[in-house]
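Thread: "does anyone have the structure for this chain?"

Original post by V.I.:
We have the sequence but no experimental structure in hand. Need at least a predicted one for the grant figures.
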Amino acid sequence: MRRLLLVRHCESTGLQPDAPLTARGFAQALALASQLAPRTPDLIVSSPFLRARQTVEPLAQTLATPIEIEPRLAERTLAAEPPQEFRTAVRHSLEDFDQRLPGGETSRAAQRRGRQAIEAILQRGHRLPVVATHGQLLTLILNSIDPAFGFAGWESLSHPDVYLVEADGPRWSFRRLSDGAGNPNALRDEQYGDSRNLSARMALHARFATNRHGWFRWVFDRLPPLQVANVLEIGCGAGWLWRENRSRVPPSWNIHLSDFSPGMLAETRQSLADVNAHYVVADALSLPFVRIRFHTVIANHMLYHVPDRQRALRGVARLLTPDGCLVAATVGKRHLAELDALLSDVGVDQADLGNSMVTSFTLENGALQIAAAFDRVTLERYSNALRVTEVDPVIAYLQSMPVGRALTPDMTARIRGTVARAIEQHGAFEVATDTGVFIASNSPRGGS
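Reply from O.Q.:
Generated one for you, tokens below.
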């Protein structure tokens, strides 16, 4: 296994090769050095552009390691004169890799030299190189590993940004790390960088749910029964909805699966190799669909993570066909209340339980929010509960949550004791669930 850390530069004063970092960018570079130094990288390579070099200078000083300059890591020149609509020009260049603006470099040519540069670095045999480059070139390098990482991936990048690239023979992969500078994407990187946390939580439901029909099959039952349809899932995770229903998917469906986590989406692509689907790295606020309209959009337990929900809902409404619908799942106030009580009983503050974000969009308050963007909203609840007969799955669930970091060994032991006593006395640790879906549309339609 060979690996390297691919770094986008910190905040800079401009796009010129000699544009330095801003004062905030220099502070970011110091924070980045603090984050990366404990990983003890043994090689630092940079683009020749000043902002990239300054991004890794504090790290180089901390490790007493020289910075090597690699010309192939320079940012792609989009055009000789910066386009007035820069964002639009980048999007077009990432949709057509052979497009060339006057005086510019095609995405294909830039991707080739960027990929060659990191391959050459990996072949040198260092334990962990750090490679500093730029947003467009980093996007193109990651796109060479996973074509789903395109324009929306570029838009999601922060200053700075860090990706761990791993090469195991011909198999390459990547995942995003925390940027070390007040990461605005901590939810994506720490909770949903891959499916491990979600899988631990889903295992509790899968093993101990009293409703054996299954959540994902129940949700699929609520999708419009069309034989031909464009279907989009926002925040698809590791593709569980489609894994559980792969035999029920009409072959004429045109499926698009999006997630803000490249790592999660890579798992989805691998697990659904037999399902004809399109994959795109995107969050609910930057869905990159321009020419396609969807008959169904699915948002399964993710809208409470969206900071500007009204903007996202209006965007979904624009993406729907006139007779299309949104199927949005969330939870109610009583959902898993017994697990919250376990945490409260050992002294974890209510603010740390992770509920504040979820309670912003629930079965109780979600309908009014959706109604601001849709004419018709109905709610269907899923009847279920958990009857847990083992202690370890409860602990694994709690440790997979953000609050898991706050649990000391003593707290964990006390929780174990509480759950074990309930199982001994009552045969199971009973946990209430409260989940359901809103079905929303902007025109009357029959059935659900």
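V.I.: this helps a lot. The chain has two domains: 2-184, 196-441.
O.Q.: and The longest strand covers residues 320-331.
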